[in-house]
Amino acid sequence: MRHHLPVAFLIACTLGASEARAQSTAWGEKGYISFNGMYRNESTDFNETTTFDLNHESASVRAGHRIEPGPLFDITAGGRIKGNLGMGFGVSYIRRSEAATVDAALPHPFYFNQPRTVTGNAAGLRHQDLAIHAHAMWLLPFSESVQVALFGGPTFFKVTQQIVTAVQFTDEYPFDQATYTGISTVDARGSRFGYNAGTDASVFFSQYVGIGGLVRFTRGTVQLPSPRGGEVSIDTGGLQAGAGLRVRF
Q1: How far, in Å, are 106, 152, 163 from residue 54 at the CA level?
Q2: Which CA distances in Å does 237 have to 21, 46, 48, 220?
Q3: Fold classification of 4-248 (topology level)
Q4: Burial class of residue 240, CB neighbours in 10 A (0-12, 13-18, 19+)
Q5: Model pTM?
Q6: Contact in structure between 97 and 125 (CB atoms under 8 Å)
Q7: DSSP H or E segment with residue 42
Q8: Residue 30 contacts by C-beta under 8 Å, 6 or more apart in sequence?
Q9: Tens of pLDDT along 99-128?
């Protein structure tokens, strides 16, 4: 039995050294940075209602928005704090052109409380979503070239959305009907904290360069101020997945 103790000790030391070396090289000497092309597979629906003065009464406009799934760009950097524990920061950016359905009630120029109803579609409305992620990471270094990290933490969302302020229309005598021709818009901006969680898997072909995949779920709700009073609530984030370049340094 005593003859086996030196062998067991040697194996334990070798495995311990390999794990320590894998932890060190998997993070790089100082850390790593990743550049990812990603896709968000979740659509976002929200509504807004506004009023404006017309013919000495209040006209009301309701716009129903739908932001479709689509691509986004992400850059993330991280490093080891101690052992398997690390810290990372990321930035993702989404820009979309979306459409809204518009319904409006327009006061009659001759009669009170007899609004005319118009409907239409508004295309080309701008939507921008900037997210800044901070997260703690737990590294699973399978080898010097393969690493997997689990992460989670807060996300700061900043959203810019083109919203509807009024409807444009034409009408003719006796003005009992109106025809939709377009909308007036304004850029509304808001920000709010949410959260993120996910996993990152990487394979390195050299000491410094590799490729990897990233899956992240984020969620937040941003309140946009309406120029005519009130707020517009937008849920942002969702499930995002993609891949890209990994660089250790």
Answers
A1: 7, 50, 19
A2: 37, 14, 19, 6
A3: Lipocalin (2.40.128)
A4: buried
A5: 0.82
A6: yes
A7: none
A8: 79, 249
A9: 899 999 999 999 898 899 999 998 889 999
